[in-house]
Design goal:
Shape: elongated
Order of helices and strands: EEEEEEEEEEEEEEEEEEEEEEEE
Structural class: mainly beta
Number of strands: 24
Strand content: over 45%
Largest sheet: 7 strands, antiparallel
Oligomer: single chain
């Protein structure tokens, strides 16, 4: 545990001067999630300092938003992860496009929020996306234009069931994401997402993002690395070393069973020579 020493000088009324050191615990910069980061960025944190984690656009944070440096020199809680969007292997929709080859359902899955698609008029028309890898669906995000909307989000299960993740009805007065959390325990073995219209008007969608868990999945392994830190996702923890240090032969640990990491000896060694490859953490890292 690192310590910062402060010199304190006290002068008594009797004229005697008393001096001494106060030990202030420090925390090293913390581990961080892949597809995300934290702030504020500092070289050293003192006990009581708080950091805030964030995730990139379209990703979903799993775990703590905040962590605090404790007087033990450790960060309280777990390093969160940022879950990236799941991929759709196939998308389709009911449409008036003629010929059928003009169906532009993929515009709702192209990662471009300024390109939108639309179903044909009438209730029960829908947009549908099939997941590349089935899993536990925990969230669906929909980016909508400024229109009146009425729809229901359905998760499509391997057994043929369609289970609701919620509805949205009303006028969307600003461009933003709508979030729909899918209920446990019925959100497992999900193979796709359907957005079903509840209105006579065409259903307009600009982007549909699904977040699923595929197993095995792990969280923070709590491995302390001197002169380095870990970049985490649910499947792996990757070693990054500070400037001037190089990585050990093993550079990552992996999630082998849910909640279980394989254990390898990860460490950072002081670099004794100059190379063209810089393993250090750059200014662009979170």
């Amino acid at each position: 545990m690192a310590m910062l020493f402060w010199m304190v000088v006290l002068t008594c009324s009797c004229g005697v001067v008393i001096s001494g050191n106060i030990e202030v615990p420090e925390c090293e910069p913390p581990d961080y999630p892949q597809w995300g980061g934290y702030g504020p960025r500092q070289d050293v944190y003192l006990a009581g300092d708080v950091i805030h984690y964030y995730c990139d656009t379209d990703t979903y944070i799993g775990g703590n938003f905040y962590r605090r440096c404790e007087d033990t020199g450790d960060w309280i809680g777990h390093t969160p992860v940022c879950d990236p969007p799941s991929r759709f292997s196939f998308v389709n929709q009911t449409t008036t496009a003629d010929p059928a080859g003009m169906n532009d359902a993929e515009k709702a899955a192209d990662a471009l929020r300024d390109s939108c698609t639309s179903t044909k008029e009438g209730p029960d028309n829908y947009w549908m996306g099939m997941l590349t890898t089935p899993g536990q669906l925990f969230r669906v995000m929909i980016f909508l234009p400024k229109v009146n909307v009425a729809y229901e989000v359905l998760m499509l299960k391997q057994n043929g069931q369609e289970i609701s993740c919620g509805k949205k009805e009303g006028f969307v007065d600003n461009l933003n994401w709508e979030f729909h959390n899918c209920p446990e325990p019925n959100n497992t073995d999900v193979i796709g997402v359907k957005i079903r219209s509840l209105s006579a008007e065409p259903l307009k969608l600009c982007e549909v993002v699904a977040h699923t868990l595929t197993f095995p999945t792990c969280m923070d392994p709590h491995v302390r690395i001197e002169n380095g830190r870990l970049q985490l996702n649910r499947k792996a923890a990757i070693l990054n070393c500070d400037a001037g240090y190089t990585r050990s032969p093993s550079t990552r640990i992996e999630c082998v069973r849910t909640g279980i990491w394989n254990r390898k000896n990860l460490y950072c060694m002081e670099r004794q020579w100059e190379t063209g490859n810089n393993d250090g953490i750059s200014d662009t890292d979170p």
